[in-house]
Amino acid sequence: MAGRRGARTGRGWDAAPSARTGGSGTGRRGRGRSDGSAASSGRWPAGAARPGDESDESTPTPAPPRDEAEQAREICLRQLAVRPRTRAELATALTRRGISEEVAAQVLDRYDEVGIIDDAAFARAWVSSRHQGRGLARRALANELRQRGVDADVATEALGELDESTEAETARSLVDRKLRTATGSPEAVFRRLVGMLARKGYPPGVAIRAVKDALAERDAEAAEFADQIDADALAEAGSDPERDAL
């Protein structure tokens, strides 16, 4: 019996590891994981990338180069979203952003065709807005239109809608508004107000007459001073209201 027990013991759970595992020394639970890593078992978790593998998702596809005409259109639309622009203003903006002259001309020609750019409409709106809002006269308005690249003939046509009588009425309105808070002698007030009109582009004759008429209605002292003013003579003599205001 002892012999049979010993043989059984040799084959049982207390046998040497080599007798149960073939000499591996690791046991059934450690099979294939000698270093505790997934690589030692030859298997990888689902969805995990192996070393050296390149995933398509991790390598973004480079965007195709943008079309120059598309860039030009976007620049123009951003400019026009702020306020109306002349063709010359848009051309300057495109040049600054590195758009070629050929592409710029193609885009701007197309905008001309569909009415997105209309220098004549721009000039009319500019004259109306700046005259009513700022009281600018034709000379100042002509200078502003020229700075924005409006053609001389187009500007002249737009300025023709501002006649002399309207210009004179606006000049008088500006003087009346300033005269309410003006201080100093009639002569000093006269020079300041004529200078103000000159800076807004009014010719000497219009400016002098507007201020003289307003002073004549202010008080006795101002009226007496205004009586001594010969508006026509001062205008013909080439009076410089801007200089007189200093």
Break the fold down into its secondary structure elements and pairings.
Blueprint: H1 2-11, H2 17-21, H3 38-41, H4 68-82, H5 87-96, H6 101-114, H7 119-134, H8 138-147, H9 152-159, H10 164-179, H11 186-199, H12 204-216, H13 220-227, H14 231-236, H15 241-244
Helix pairs in contact: 4-6, 5-6, 7-9, 8-9, 10-12, 11-12, 12-13
Low-pLDDT stretches: 1-34, 36-40, 241-246
Question: What is the end-to-end distance?
Answer: 136 Å
Number of helices: 15
Strand content: under 5%
Q: Rough shape?
A: elongated
Radius of gyration based on Cα positions? 45 Å
Pfam family, one: RecX_HTH1
InterPro entries: RecX_HTH_1st (IPR053926), RecX_HTH_2nd (IPR053924), RecX_HTH_3rd (IPR053925), Regulatory_RecX (IPR003783), WH-like_DNA-bd_sf (IPR036388)
Protein name: Regulatory protein RecX
Organism: Plantactinospora endophytica
